[in-house]
Input
Amino acid sequence: MNILLLGSGGREHAFAWKISQSDLCQKLYIAPGNPGTALHGENVQLSVNDFNAIATLCIEKHIAMVVVGPEDPLVNGIVDFFEQHEHLKHIQVVGPSQRGAMLEGSKAFAKEFMIKYGIPTASYREFNADNFEEGLQYIHQHALPVVLKADGLAAGKGVVIAQTTEEALTEFTEMIQHNKFGKAGSNVVIEAFLTGIECSVFVLTDGNDYILLPSAKDYKRIGEGDTGLNTGGMGAISPVPFADEAFMKKVTDQIILPTIHGIKSDGIGYNGFVFIGLISVNGEPFVIEYNCRMGDPETEVVLPRLENDLVDIFNKLHQGKLNEIICQHSSATAATIMLVSKGYPEEYQKGIEITQLDAAEGSQVFHAGTMQTDDGRIVTNGGRVVAITSVGDSLQQALDTSVLNAKKIQFEGKYFRTDIGWEFI
Ligand code: AMP
Ligand code: GLY
Output
């Protein structure tokens, strides 16, 4: 079949790499893609939110399956769009309905869902302009640190962990009265701070059955030892050593099964990934967040360990036959390191030439923020530039290979962390 993949980051390069290995994939298109995805299919210059243009492409190219990488089109309702148009109905879209995507698109919706289905999460309350004064009171009596979350999508920036009451009051006021995150911040979730160690669990579900993909942990801070500003992710590892059988049984019983049950009971259309961001508090799992898609850079370590044919999995998902899939994961460890632009996650330059991309040995280089110029050079086109994934018998071995290759690939202002997975080494 012909497949269209939406997105343009490292996650999408990893998807393109994996999908193109399937015998079931005849022709792969990626919109808009990047120079990395172009190695596995044909890039088409379309916006992931231009549903009409995507529909036209699907008909023209006889697309049978659309795999949605980022959250934006899902939150904007791409699945519902395909279902509502007679001539698009036959196309399988991997992703949740618009309502399902609210698990990521609205923190308040996700919290309500978790409370309703008894899923462990931090205690919280929701505030907006109407109960603003009450919110101030709530902050005054809240233990520190306290977590403030803009309800809507805020490009990963909508979460503030306030160390003092003053800071919390200022942030809360900024969000609600001064539109700090625009409409996304007009509703604010205030929740208790949980202390523990984080990891992510990925489930693919049709709202009835599910399969569990390898667990992963990403490293969000810019600096070594998890210091400095938050980023989209500086690296990731899979598997996560503490997510052993006993922990995963708790995750399954207390979180995954109630989540699937909730999706089904609420009649939410779901044919896609649920990314569950967890925190282990003294060995007990709590949900920090849901995402309605795969993680980036987690996908760059999860897919290299998945031994199944991904297209076969997606087919079974749409046929309601997920129960026929036995998920096979390699027992090896994968580590990925992001090479980022100087200045990231704040201001950085684009258009800087990248060289020695072919020098990496024993690693898979996934393009994230790159672009090809008219004269054929590969240049930087984002803060996160490439992800270097290695698979090894141990985390140390995988990390060493990625670090070695990270040093070989060159561009001016290159920066990366060498300590991905540090707490497990
Ligand atoms: P999110 O955008 O929801 O992923 O939040 C960003 C980061 O903030 C998470 O990865 C956690 O490190 C942290 N965080 C969010 N909520 C909490 C919480 N209730 N307790 C502790 N840390 C949190
Ligand atoms: N790496 C975190 C995310 O994809 O949201």
Remarks:
- The mean pLDDT is 96.
- The pocket of adenosine monophosphate (ligand 1) is lined by residues 122, 147, 156, 159, 191, 193-194, 198, 220, 277, 288-289 (CB under 6 Å).
